[in-house]
Backbone:
């Protein structure tokens, strides 16, 4: 029984790691999405099923020691779900795309359901975050400095992601959106990579270099209208 639990945990970790890699800005958002839990449990169940098959056919993988055999069986079963759900039996061309038919099709559908569930949960929160952080930031002044500063704060960002970000920023610059709309879109691009905390720190550090300075924590915005020094009239 312990072997099935260990294989299930390993399979669940594989599924969790895949989901977390898709939502790096806030992986904790997955906790409130039922479809994400279902995806993780499916990976765990698949690992347990593979372990049952391994033991049913008495596959020892060349080991003679009972302890080593049990460990190898659990390891193979836990990682087998990773290969099983990403395999396809044959490909079907639909329009201009080739679609793999097999377990990976089920995986893609489940990932799509999880994606939509997380997006619905996070859409409002992300909108509030980006409008608050990027308020007063001018895209024309931030399009180079802000991404460069954010990327410099990270140490292990792959080169391909940096190139993809540069391409997306150039597309924003060439669009017909207003400067404010471009600024918010730039904020969303950066949040996906560095997260809201790093983005807010970068915007605060650059300050007036990229637009209007952000108010310090706890500082209230100045009221609009008559100044305090304006004399009162009867």
Residues:
């Amino acid at each position: 029984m312990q072997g099935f639990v260990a294989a299930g945990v390993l399979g669940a970790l594989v599924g969790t790691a895949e989901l977390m890699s898709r939502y790096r800005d806030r992986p904790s958002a997955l906790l409130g999405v039922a479809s994400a839990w279902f995806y993780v449990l499916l990976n765990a169940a698949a690992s347990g099923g593979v372990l049952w098959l391994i033991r049913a056919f008495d596959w020892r993988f060349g080991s003679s020691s009972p302890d080593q055999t049990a460990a190898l069986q659990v390891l193979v079963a836990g990682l087998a779900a990773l290969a099983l759900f990403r395999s396809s039996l044959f490909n079907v061309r639909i329009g201009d795309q080739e679609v793999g038919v097999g377990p990976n099709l089920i995986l893609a559908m489940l990932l799509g359901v999880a994606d939509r569930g997380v997006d619905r949960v996070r859409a409002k929160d992300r909108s509030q975050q980006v409008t608050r952080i990027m308020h007063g930031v001018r895209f024309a002044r931030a399009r180079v400095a802000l991404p460069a500063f954010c990327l410099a704060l990270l140490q292990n960002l792959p080169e391909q992601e940096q190139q993809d970000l540069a391409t997306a920023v150039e597309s924003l610059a060439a669009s017909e959106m207003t400067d404010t709309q471009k600024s918010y879109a730039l904020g969303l691009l950066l949040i996906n990579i560095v997260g809201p905390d790093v983005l807010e720190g970068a915007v605060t550090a650059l300050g007036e270099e990229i637009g209007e300075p952000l108010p310090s924590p706890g500082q209230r915005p100045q009221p609009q209208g008559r100044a305090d020094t304006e004399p009162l009239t009867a």
